[in-house]
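User: I'm writing a tutorial on reading structure tokens. Could you give me a worked example: one chain, its sequence, then its tokens, then a sentence or two explaining what the tokens reveal?
Assistant: Sure. Here is the example chain.
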Amino acid sequence: MARMLFDHLNHIHEKQTIGYYDNLSEEDKKTFSDYMICRFVSMNPDYLLVVNEIQKCWEWVKSRELYLFLSQVLPQKKQFNKYIKATVADDKLDHWIVEILRQYFHISSKEAQKYGEILYDSPEGKKYLRELLIRHGREAKEIKKAGL
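And here are its predicted structure tokens:
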């Protein structure tokens, strides 16, 4: 019977059986993704340091050792960890704003996107961004339409 990722997580959090991983079939072991296990465990802020320590020696830790470590270190209780979603791509700045930032700071488009997002998050940053866009010949109406 193929187990799902959440079955493995529940077993780590609730049952604490040392022989669990050894008794999995080859098909079940394929569903035990080290990366996904650590990703879901790290959704609980209390366990971030534990996952960080595991990831420091990622190339040496095998799936069996990961299971044993987590099942012994984490508290044995049923829990629900809210999934942390990535930011929505629609929040990105207009392309023309990123292009102005890229040219002004002489950086890559990716870096310009990050700069713009950082500036956009604070009132002072928005003011600076508006002034920069005006200096580069953009009209106030166009800047307002872009949310600045």
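What the tokens reveal: The mean pLDDT is 84. The radius of gyration is 23 Å.
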